[in-house]
């Protein structure tokens, strides 16, 4: 048995006097520890799910017609609102900004931090944020520097997320006694978040319209009784948010599997599932292949379907470093985002040589070539770049395509090359909206370079052909030999702080057989082998009344998922809904017959157990696992850690059927990590390595040109480029975040980079599309989506003229999520197509008669 490090029992989780490993330097490969292995995102070669998903890669998914739920009428049918209220909050338009961060970001960070947690508590939280002996940011998964970290190692959005977690306001029993669920649902999402931190376990019993206090043992008993009343373990669904650290994530999947199900949907199913589905069969690992240092020395960086200024602001520092080292950056996006244009680094204000320039200068120009692609046109765009590269190779044999790399490390090149050469320029230009000349400009930057990195996010993954688009990204890197060397590789940029780590811990509905073998050996039970349900399939099964219990460990699936009213109907059909969370959100209010709201700690909170102050761990976008150790005393109340909640549920539910020592794991998280070390490759000596400042890198085969596919080769993919037709009056909608939100958490009504203030119910439209529909700036409009003959409508949005390709429109989620059909998914990954929704837009007055008749019908 592998022992934990010898520590003072009163200081469990401390990093006291641990020897630091040498931090990897630019140009060196980080210490991988053991031979590279595939992660849990690639099934066994003979796994039926692998065959099924690969078979669907080249053909549209089977038609599955599910009637649209009532979207426009729902507010008349249900007193508890599943959608955000329609009340407008006062739009003020300004010009969009062309520089990200700067002094304004610093001021906004401080203002928000001090307003939420107070000056002392808020400042203390920020000083511990992303430090080697501090806690991990609960927002994005961007990596921290291996070596020096500044005093302010955070961005504006990280500061907001931390301030929200450090909130000193309490949402306790008094709040829920005073306000019914219906009343709370009429608050905006921002105001729900601003009620404060949840402090006591609460229950909504059958027929009640309020949450009321409940003791923890009684809450565990309710969960146990409902779970054990299931006719099959598969009548329960266990959902996970990506901010859950490794230790509770490991316990959550362990409990679900000891209970008997692989129904473990998580937020990955809705974001980077397409990345894993594309990368695993081509490179052998469903994760990125670069480190932060690689970005600093890249020669060309391609940013596609990502808005780093809002969603991953700390990435801008890496891009600035790359630019200062001579890198060229190509940005591909339907919107000209501020973070893709220029950046003023707040850290420069502390450098006397750069402070003046940072204050009054134009900042660092980020993009050298901007390609304003049409929504869903990225795949065609990538083909255009590669077609130019093949033409350049014809003129300069052996100088553009890395044929030695192709011959030694890859398979499938000839079919891929023919596929690209056979794609017509007319097709490429029409689908992408980018001219052949513009694509040549981008291709010329890459032609003689090999230190190329491509970064992408949900702008790619949530397309209908998101998986195939990412496979084209892989094709580009393989033809250039731009992988497995310093300054080169693939970089899917994850969202939540530990969304990648949760998957590594086994939070997946289609986990590998060898993981289950190791789990069975370690915990002495028989794990279920049949595939579970992902998010979309879970929701469809819940909606069909085939499940009994929905258990959510963090997150807000109601607001994060597609087809909001469909999700609401699914939730109402459950016998029990369980929500573990830190702050109130809309998802806690649309419930099953019985519902539990269980308060837990955030990353910033001190977690004291019997053995002392505990730490957890998170894995960032580049495969670094580092410690997370809270520094703030939790608010007065009756919160439990996620580990303690899961263990309490497991003990009550499994009883004598489990031999797992849930108590020992709760009392000392080192025990959990000892188990992880014996189950998951790459985590050997977990406790020791986690205590090394900065953490450790997980094995990564592609980073070393060791491709853990079946034949040990990297695989080119021959994809099918599909063109989709829409009616003349139809537009293509994509959903996006505002700058003042993180995922489904809304901090304010502003989006200052895009010039939006005081309002979220907006639709960005091309001025020509507005004129064609007789719509003027700030007119009220209704939006209707069209899919399989069904319509879904949201009302009272405000039209905003914007620089967006003709035929495309954009709106914020969750407000626009009711328009995304539950069955409209990306091929292979089953990810909802939030970046491709066919809609029509009309002035609100056009729907008045229809609305009146529907309301009369509902009220009759």
Q: What is the CA-CA span between the terminal residues?
A: 69 Å
Sheet having the most strands: 6 strands, mixed
Unreliable residue stretches = 1-33, 40-51
Q: State the helix count.
A: 33
Shape: globular
**Strand order within the widest beta sheet:** 6-5-18-17-16-7
User: Share of helix among residues?
Assistant: 25-40%
SS class? alpha/beta
Gyration radius over CA: 26 Å
Please tell me the overall pLDDT.
88
Count of distinct strands? 33
Q: Hey, roughly how much beta strand do the residues contain? A: 15-25%
Task: Outline the structure in words.
The protein has 33 helices and 33 strands. It has 860 residues and is of the alpha/beta class. The chain is globular and about 75 Å long. It is 34% helix and 15% strand.
Label this structure with key terms.
single chain; 860 residues; alpha/beta; 33 helices; 34% helix; globular; disordered N terminus
Short recap of the structure:
Helix content is 34%, strand content 15%. It has 860 residues and is α/β, with parallel strands linked by helices. The strands form ten sheets. It has a six-stranded mixed sheet with strand order 6-5-18-17-16-7, with helices on both faces. Strands 25-32-29-31-30-33 form a six-stranded mixed β-barrel. A five-stranded parallel sheet has the order 12-9-8-14-15, with helices on both faces.
């Amino acid at each position: 048995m592998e022992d934990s490090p010898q520590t003072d029992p009163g200081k469990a989780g401390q990093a006291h006097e641990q020897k630091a490993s040498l931090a990897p330097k630019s140009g060196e490969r980080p210490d991988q520890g053991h031979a590279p292995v595939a992660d849990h995102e690639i099934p066994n070669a003979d796994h039926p799910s692998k065959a099924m998903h690969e078979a669907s890669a080249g053909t549209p998914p089977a038609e599955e017609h599910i009637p649209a739920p009532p979207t426009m009428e729902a507010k008349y049918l249900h007193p508890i609102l599943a959608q955000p209220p329609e009340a407008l909050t006062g739009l003020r338009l300004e010009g969009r900004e062309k520089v990200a961060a700067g002094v304004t970001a610093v001021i906004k960070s401080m203002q928000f931090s001090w307003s939420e947690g107070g000056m002392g508590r808020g400042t203390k939280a920020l000083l511990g944020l992303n430090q080697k002996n501090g806690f991990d940011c609960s927002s994005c998964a961007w990596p921290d520097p291996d070596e020096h970290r500044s005093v302010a190692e955070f961005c504006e959005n990280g500061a907001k997320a931390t301030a929200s977690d450090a909130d000193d306001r309490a949402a306790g029993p008094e709040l829920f006694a005073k306000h019914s669920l219906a009343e709370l649902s009429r608050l905006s999402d921002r105001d729900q978040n601003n009620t404060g931190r949840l402090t006591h376990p609460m229950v909504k019993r059958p027929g009640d319209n309020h949450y009321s206090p409940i003791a923890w043992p009684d809450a565990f008993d309710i969960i146990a009784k409902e779970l054990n009343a299931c006719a099959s373990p598969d009548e329960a669904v266990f959902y996970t948010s990506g901010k859950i650290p490794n230790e509770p994530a490991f316990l959550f999947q362990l409990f679900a599997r000891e209970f008997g199900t692989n129904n473990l949907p998580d937020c990955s199913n809705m974001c980077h599932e397409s990345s894993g589905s594309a990368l695993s069969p081509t490179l052998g690992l469903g994760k990125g292949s670069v480190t932060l240092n690689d970005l600093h020395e890249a020669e060309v960086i391609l940013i596609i379907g990502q808005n780093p200024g809002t969603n991953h602001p700390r990435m801008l520092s890496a891009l600035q470093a790359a630019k200062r080292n001579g890198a060229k950056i190509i940005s591909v996006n339907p919107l000209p985002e501020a973070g893709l244009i220029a950046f003023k680094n707040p850290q420069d204000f502390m450098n006397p040589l750069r402070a003046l320039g940072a204050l009054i200068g134009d900042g660092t120009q980020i993009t050298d070539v901007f390609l304003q692609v049409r929504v869903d046109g990225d795949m065609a765009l990538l083909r255009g770049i590669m077609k130019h590269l093949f033409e350049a190779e014809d003129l300069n044999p052996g100088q553009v395509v890395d044929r030695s790399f192709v011959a030694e490390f890859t398979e499938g090149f000839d079919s891929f090359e023919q596929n690209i050469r056979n794609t017509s320029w007319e097709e490429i230009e029409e689908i992408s909206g980018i001219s052949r000349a513009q694509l040549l400009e981008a291709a010329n930057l890459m032609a003689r370079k090999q230190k190329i990195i491509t970064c992408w996010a949900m702008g790619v993954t949530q397309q209908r052909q998101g998986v195939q688009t990412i496979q084209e990204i892989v094709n580009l890197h393989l033809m250039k030999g731009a992988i497995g060397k310093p300054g080169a590789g693939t970089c899917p940029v994850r969202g939540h702080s530990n969304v990648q780590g949760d998957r590594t811990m086994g939070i997946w509905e289609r986990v590998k057989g060898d993981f289950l073998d190791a789990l069975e050996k370690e915990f002495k039970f028989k794990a279920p082998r049949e595939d579970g349900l992902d998010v979309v399939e879970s929701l469809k099964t819940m909606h069909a009344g085939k499940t009994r219990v929905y258990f959510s460990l963090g997150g807000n699936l109601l607001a994060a998922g597609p087809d909001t009213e469909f999700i609401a109907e699914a939730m109402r059909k459950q016998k029990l809904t369980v929500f573990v969370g830190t702050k109130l959100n809309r998802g806690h209010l649309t419930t099953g017959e019985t519902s539990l709201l269980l308060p837990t700690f955030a990353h910033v909170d001190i977690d004291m157990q019997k053995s002392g102050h505990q730490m957890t761990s998170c894995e960032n976008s580049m495969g670094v696992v580092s410690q997370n150790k809270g520094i703030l005393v939790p608010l007065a109340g009756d919160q439990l850690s996620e580990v303690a909640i899961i263990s309490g549920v497991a003990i009550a539910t499994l009883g004598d059927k489990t031999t797992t020592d849930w108590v020992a794991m709760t009392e000392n998280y080192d025990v959990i990590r000892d188990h992880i070390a014996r189950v998951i490759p790459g985590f050997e000596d977990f406790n020791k390595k986690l205590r090394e400042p900065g953490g450790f890198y997980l094995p990564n085969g592609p980073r070393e040109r060791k491709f853990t596919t079946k034949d040990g080769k990297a695989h080119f993919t021959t994809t099918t480029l599909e063109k989709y037709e829409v009616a003349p009056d139809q537009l293509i909608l994509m959903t996006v975040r505002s700058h003042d939100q993180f995922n489904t958490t809304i901090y304010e009504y502003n989006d200052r980079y895009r010039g939006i203030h005081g309002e979220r119910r907006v639709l960005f439209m091309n001025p020509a599309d507005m004129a064609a529909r007789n719509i003027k700036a700030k007119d009220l409009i209704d939006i209707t989506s069209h899919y399989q003959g069904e319509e879904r409508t949201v009302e009272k949005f405000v039209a905003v003229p914007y620089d967006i390709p003709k035929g495309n429109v954009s709106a914020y989620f969750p407000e626009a999520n009711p328009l995304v059909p539950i069955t409209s998914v990306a091929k292979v990954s089953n990810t909802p197509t939030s970046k491709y929704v066919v809609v029509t837009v009309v002035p609100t007055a056009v729907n008045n008669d229809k609305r009146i008749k529907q309301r009369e019908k509902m009220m009759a």
